[in-house]
Design brief:
By secondary structure, the protein is mainly α. About 70% of the residues lie in helices and about 0% in strands. It has one domain. Helix 1 runs parallel beside helix 4. The longest helix is centred in the last third of the chain and has 37 residues.
Length: about 130
């Protein structure tokens, strides 16, 4: 099966938009707490959300996932299409998928940072 260049470009463009849209998510997570959302809660939440933003999406784990995806995708593309173009398209798609996987992990990490931070500041986080 030969991958068409226009289809590959469309997939890469859509994937880039999705990843870009996730750039500031999860650090803005608001956990459910058992208690009042008073002034101290809002101040702590702002501090914890700012702390979560320090976990960048372009961290080493995401880069490693993107690189691994590119290597595997390139190999599969070369085998499937039996051409340099197939290897390039496979590497691009694999890198995108690997990067998306790393970004999803970072999103989960950011949410966990907010939860642990709020708990550490004495808020009874229930969800």
């Amino acid at each position: 099966m030969r991958i068409q260049r226009s289809n590959a470009i469309m997939v890469i463009a859509c994937g880039s938009l999705v990843l870009g849209g996730c750039a500031n998510t999860a650090s803005g997570y608001r956990p459910i707490v058992d208690g009042y959302e008073d002034e101290a809660y809002h101040a702590d939440l702002a501090d914890c959300q700012a702390l979560a933003k320090t976990k960048r999406y372009d961290n080493g784990d995401t880069k490693t996932s993107a690189l691994a995806g590119a290597v595997v995708g390139g190999a599969v593309g070369a085998i499937e299409d039996d051409s340099v173009e197939g290897a390039i398209v496979g590497a691009l798609l694999g890198g995108l998928i690997g990067g998306a996987s790393g970004a999803a992990d970072t999103r989960t990490d950011r949410k966990d940072i907010v939860i642990r931070c709020m708990s550490g500041r004495g808020h009874a986080v229930v969800g």
